[in-house]
User: What shape does this take?
Amino acid sequence: MTQAARTTVTLLALGALLVVAAVWGWHATMKPLPAKVDSPICVDTPVSAGDKVYPQQVTVSVYNASQREGLAGRTMQLLKDAGFTKGQAGNAATAKVSTVQIWSTTPENPDVQLVASYFGDIDVERRDGPGLGVTVVVGDKFKELSEGQRSVVAQADAAICSPPVT
Assistant: This one.
């Protein structure tokens, strides 16, 4: 084979390889990007009787039932500073709460008891809350958190809403 024939064959092979790579690249760039997977705010975590539950294991959602703008956000920040994990926040304008209430279908759970310890003597109402985890509803007369417990011992087996382990 002559030098000119070898050069022609090499250039044709490289040209074909370039076309294949260009077609593959075009198809790869035109595919949709993978969707972002949102991790859950909290997951149900079993707690056995006798286990200690700490603030960093508890997700808290705060809702404002007062006329004071931003009260839910400020209360959420206080709870985060105390070690709790942020859940959801928003307004509960139709709720009639003067100081603070915790809404939970399981008021005897250790996560509810731990959050309640940061608000002093408050009502724990047995009802579904709009948020994830322990739902706290603050009213016009709420001023500040009290000195809460560092942990609570579970009296019975329970499930709490904890942040996912990453």
Observations:
- The chain has a mean pLDDT of 92.
- The CA atoms of residues 55 and 84 lie 5 Å apart.
- The first strand starts at residue 43 and ends at 47.
